[in-house]
Automatic annotation (TrEMBL):
Catalytic reaction equation(s): phosphoenolpyruvate + GTP + H(+) = enolpyruvoyl-2-diphospho-5'-guanosine + diphosphate
EC number: 2.7.7.105
A single GO BP: F420-0 metabolic process
Organism: Acrocarpospora pleiomorpha
Keyword annotations: GTP-binding, Nucleotide-binding, Nucleotidyltransferase, Transferase
Job description of the protein: Guanylyltransferase that catalyzes the activation of phosphoenolpyruvate (PEP) as enolpyruvoyl-2-diphospho-5'-guanosine, via the condensation of PEP with GTP. It is involved in the biosynthesis of coenzyme F420, a hydride carrier cofactor.
GO molecular function term, any single one: GTP binding
Record-given protein name: Phosphoenolpyruvate guanylyltransferase
Length: 211
């Protein structure tokens, strides 16, 4: 078996601003949904055999407490946007384990399977800088760099094109649907449910989504 040595950085937005595209469907459950999705994502990452540590970057005490109880290291968010948050997590990963590869992973992957994350990380280990596009092929769900390689995340909106144009290797693999399935809309949530939601997301989703 391969050694567990990846640092995974997971950014978690302040709840009051999180999952706004799901506000219509989730209503009063929106913040619980954001916490549940991040909990399932971090749980799956922590259960991945190649992952040595999960570093969560957040300014919000609720996900901070929940995810630190799971075993994640929590780093304060400088509150200057997503890529700055990821760089703060990267700095912590270098402090903790300077020789380990690092991957930024979106927090909204509620169907994530540890074995599929391991497949993506095994492929990423072959390149200095790489990424996994989201299911629609517009954004990015995972961005990875090898030890000592500059960490230049360009998340936000149409980030697949930005990661491609800066020279990162696009990892197009079979069998990583759960790594690519981020959830922003109710259609995304249904697509994730078809793959199999983690238990926290399934419980919250059952409160507002029927069928
Ligand atoms: N720590 C941190 N995480 C962020 C920030 N902005 C976005 N994220 C995270 O980045 C990922 C993608 O976020 P978005 O799609 O922009 O936001 P969202 O809350 O998932 O959804 P919307 O509100 O509908 O845009 C999620 O994992 C968020 O938690 C930020 O400023 N700080
Ligand atoms: C932040 C991103 O995506 P989304 O807003 O779709 O979560 C991204 O893919 O870079």
């Amino acid at each position: 078996m391969q050694e567990a040595r990846w640092s995974i950085v997971i950014p978690v937005k302040t709840l009051i601003r999180a999952k706004t595209r799901l506000a219509g469907a989730a209503g009063a459950h929106r913040e619980d949904l954001a916490v549940a999705v991040a909990t399932d994502t971090a749980s799956a990452a922590l259960a991945c055999p190649l992952v040595a540590r999960v570093i969560v970057v957040t300014a919000d005490p609720i996900p901070a407490a929940r995810l630190s109880r799971l075993g994640a290291v929590v780093v304060p968010d400088p509150d200057k946007g997503l890529n700055t948050a990821l760089r703060a997590g990267f700095a912590e990963s270098v402090r903790l384990a300077p020789g380990d590869p690092v991957a930024a992973l979106q927090a909204d992957l509620p169907a994530l399977r540890p074995a599929e994350l391991a497949r993506a990380l095994t492929a990423a280990a072959e390149f200095e800088e790489s990424f996994v596009p989201d299911a629609p092929g517009v954004g990015t769900t995972l961005y990875a760099t090898g030890p000592g390689i500059p960490f230049r995340p360009r998340f936000g909106g149409e980030s697949r094109a930005r990661h491609l144009s800066c020279g990162a290797k696009e990892l197009l693999l079979d069998g990583i649907d759960s790594v690519r399935r981020d959830v922003d809309t109710v259609e995304d949530l249904r697509a994730a449910a078809a793959l199999g939601l983690g238990p926290h997301t399934a419980a919250v989703t059952a409160r507002f989504l029927v069928g």
